[in-house]
Amino acid sequence: MQKLYIGGRMLDKNHRFYRLSGAIDWRLLEDEITGLLHHQHQEQWRLVSGSIYLKSFYDLSTEEVIERWSECPYLRFFCTGDTRVEPTRNFPLSLEELEQLSLELEGQGYAVMIKALNDFRLLDVSQPESSSMIH
Questions:
Q1: Per the domain annotation, does 38 fall within a domain?
Q2: For 33-71, what is each residue's pLDDT tens digit?
């Protein structure tokens, strides 16, 4: 079993973001969403779709996702799949870029994101009592 570390901290595989990450078919998203994004942002497909998922599941604003980026290693893992994202690193996109890219995915992109949810049972564990519980 592989241990995952982020920012020098081992990730808990029972954390709701870690488990939620396993419920999403990221390959399907990559295959179908990259073509919907402007060419210069195609490599950031997971960051954008992960942010949209978090905004939807936790009723967060774009600003709140960006603000929590440096505080929550699980949020960084969920949105990138990368365990090397350091906690001091700023969110890779500006607020305006993230909002624009989210708009580019409306319609067809959102339909693919729903299709990519493999295990709806895990969505129950992703619902905290309030968005302030995201950490």
A1: yes
A2: 999 988 888 999 999 999 999 999 889 999 999 998 888
